[in-house]
Amino acid sequence: MDVILAEVEDEIAGMMCDSYGNYLCSAAFQACSPRQRKRILEKLSPQVAGIACDKRGTHALQALIGLLQLEEEQQQLMNAIKSRVIELSMDPNGTHVVQRLLCCFFPSVVDWIYIAIHDRMIEVAHHPYGLCVLKKCISQAKAPGKHQDMLLKQLARHAMDLVQSPYGNYAIQHALEEWGGSCCQPVLHKLEGRMMQLSIQKFSSNVVEKLFCSAPAEFRNRFIAELVESEKMSVLVNSNYGHYVAKRALQMATPEQSRALLEAIKANLSILPNRRLRVKWEKVMSGQGDFDDDLQDAVSWP
Predict the structure, then answer these.
(1) How far apart are CA 273 and CA 202, in angstroms?
(2) According to the model, what pLDDT value does residue 237 have?
(3) How many angstroms separate the CA atoms of 225 and 219, rounded?
(4) Looking at the domain assignment, is residue 46 inside a domain?
(5) String of DSSP letters for 50-87
(6) Where do the Pumilio repeats start and stop (predicted)?
(7) How far apart are CA 262 and CA 299, in angstroms?
(8) Most confident option among 13-22, 106-115, 249-258
(9) Which of 43, 75, 108 is the last residue of a domain?
(10) Boundary-marking domain end, from 89, 108, 127
(11) 208: in domain
(12) Residue 262 and residue 279: Cα distance in Å, rounded?
């Protein structure tokens, strides 16, 4: 391998981006010793961002990342990338490199990725490729600790912005799925008092449904109570998105809340101009929605 490296090491970056050379590089990396990989990394470092963003180079670089087992060599590559984390995260090819780093490198080495995502959370969460990196960060920070705390703080700080975003809402939903409602209480506090507003919007209504399923019982009951007690129930009734939120609320509510919610809906149906939507609501009220059998008695009329 030393003889081969001596011949190609100055051209290794170009070979990784070549339609055929990238396959050769991926195979050669597997045969290299740590000492030889260090030589390759030294040659790659100035051009690593360009390789990561190349449609062929990204595959060869990901193959190399999976082989770097020593903290020293991981840090060597991270040093070449750390100032370009956000740029790579929002690139269609570079995003896969950043996600690969999160999966393969030691948590202490990928600190730079979490710091960058923390500092520019909104920008990343509003971008389709950036969102993929943020979701991977959330998944990799599943255990309580420094990285989870960093992300949770920013998710809570920007919760209202994120839940109404076509991409950002998925970040909040993913955190609820991966960490659970109890862990995400800082986010829940930020959303409390806004249930009606969020229930009638396209993207945030999905988050509200997720909240009803994931939030601890005391939060869920308060969230549903906001809908029952709202003076703007006519707005919810007249919303296609609100229809799905109400169905989920009825599935998760206590029997008393279910009856109160149905009463509030019934009181506003007479002023509903949309006939098709009225039919949907009537099915919900008659217990013909997607409810479990043991919930029928709670939502049926006397």
Answers:
(1) 20
(2) 87
(3) 10
(4) yes
(5) HHHTSTTHHHHHHHHHTT--SHHHHHHHHHHHGGGHHH
(6) 7-42, 43-79, 80-102, 190-225, 226-263
(7) 7
(8) 106-115
(9) 108
(10) 108
(11) yes
(12) 14
Per-residue pLDDT of 8-38, as tens digits, reads: 777 889 999 999 999 989 988 998 889 989 9
| Side chain identity, residue 127 | H
If asked whether residues 80 and 189 sit together in one domain, one would say no
3-state secondary structure of 103: helix
For residue 82, the enclosing domain spans: 1-108
pLDDT tens sequence across 154-189: 999 999 999 999 999 999 999 999 999 999 999 999
Return the structure tokens found at 74: 């991981």
Residue 231, pLDDT > 90, answer no
Burial of 48 per CB tally in 10 Å (0-12, 13-18, 19+): buried
Asked if residues 172 and 187 have their Cβ atoms less than 8 Å apart, the reply is yes
**pLDDT class of 297 with cuts at 50, 70, 90:** very low
Total of domains in the chain: 2
Residue 124 covered by a domain: no
